[in-house]
Amino acid sequence: MQAKYGRRPWALVTALILIWVASPALAGEKQPPEDKVAVVNGSVITRADFDMEMSHVQRRLFSMGTPLSNSQLSEIKKEVLENLIDRELLYQESQKKGIKVDKAAINEQLMILKKRFASEAEFKNALSRMNLSEAAIKSQFKRRMAIQQLIDNQFAQKVTVSDKETKAYYDSHPDSFKQPEQVRARHILIKVDPQADESQKAKARKKLEKIQLKLQKGEDFAALAKEFSQGSTSAQGGDVGYFSRGQVVRPFEEAAFALRPGEVSDIVETRFGYHLIKVIDKRPQTTIAYEDIKDRLEEYLKQEKVQKEVSLYVEKLKEKAKVERFLTENPE
pLDDT tens digits for 196-220? Predict the structure, then answer.
């Protein structure tokens, strides 16, 4: 049920619902003319806003392993700019309709964001690195929440999806409901810095070889993982849960899928360091039953309908708005 690449990858509704730090988008502030990429009914979208958004999009595409040609990058820049313009138009419309966002709700979102960081100091350092303030973050939450309220009031509460529609979609998209083969595994990781020299690598490997000997003598894998693993799952006995092919680094994947439940790999090297892997369970490829996916499918189709309605709504807003675009390619 995932949107295919080529359908506007920053689909309007998704982009509006997601809250992420690196996009201040504080339209309305006066900016030098050379710093603006667009003006929407007098509100400025700055080059900084645009560059932040592009950085986020490029990181996401890079993490997906999606290479981009120059022509594709140029098209993505146009899409990103239009997405920023769409958001600004929707925010302006939310204000025209008198939508207010409760301060307590904004503060609650800020607290949720802060919990992603180990400490208040780490949170403030992250803001400093991105040239942001807590006030800017609150302002962004306020804008996003106002837009979401507008979408909910105008569209989401009115859209319905019938059982007939969900069943028709399920029957006509069989590949979308195939659950690939999965493995559940534990691992013990001894980290190695990517810049480590051969002697440092040998030291790390020797440490894992000693742990390997303990396993061969019958000691418990989970207990050893808790004691020695330097991975993020050490507290869980190294349990990384279930994963499919393509979800972990290739050497780890190849080793795990080659093992039977209960078996332990030899030492596996990845860019993170050296691992010992124990497979706990395997699940064969299956097809998700309609009854098990029905509710999620209904929500997905509802979002699709809302997205279409919002897109049409924005196009009508653009027809009435004064939108000036100033985006030029930065010289290489």
Answer: 999 999 999 999 999 999 999 999 9
Place of tokens 């992250």: 126
**Local structure of residue 3 (DSSP, 8 states):** P
Contact in structure between 276 and 265 (CB atoms under 8 Å): yes
Cα–Cα distance for residue pair 12/111, rounded to 1 Å: 26
pLDDT tens, 56-71? 888 887 776 677 788 8
State both tokens at 169. 């979609």
**pLDDT exceeds cutoff 70 at 281:** yes
Pairwise CA distance, residues 36 & 30, whole Å: 10
Q: What is the spatial distance between Cα 216 and Cα 236, in angstroms, rounded to a whole number? A: 21
Same domain? 273 vs 309: no
Q: Which residues pair with 283 in a beta bridge?
A: 182
Specify the number of domains making up the chain: 2
Domain range enclosing 157: 12-162+293-325
Same domain, 116 and 231: no
pTM: predicted TM-score of the whole model, two decimal places: 0.63
- 61 with 131, same domain? yes
Tell me: do 198 and 277 sit in the same domain.
Answer: yes
Closest C-alpha among 58, 65, 29, 64 to residue 45: 29
Q: Which residues contact 324 (CB under 8 A, 6 or more apart)?
A: 38, 39
- What gap in Å lies between CA 62 and CA 51, rounded to an integer? 16
Q: Is 332 contained in some domain? A: no
Q: Does an H or E element contain 6, and which?
A: none
Side chain identity, residue 305 = K
Looking at residue 68, what is its pLDDT? 78
The angle that helices 70-96 and 290-320 make with each other, rounded to 10 degrees, is: 80
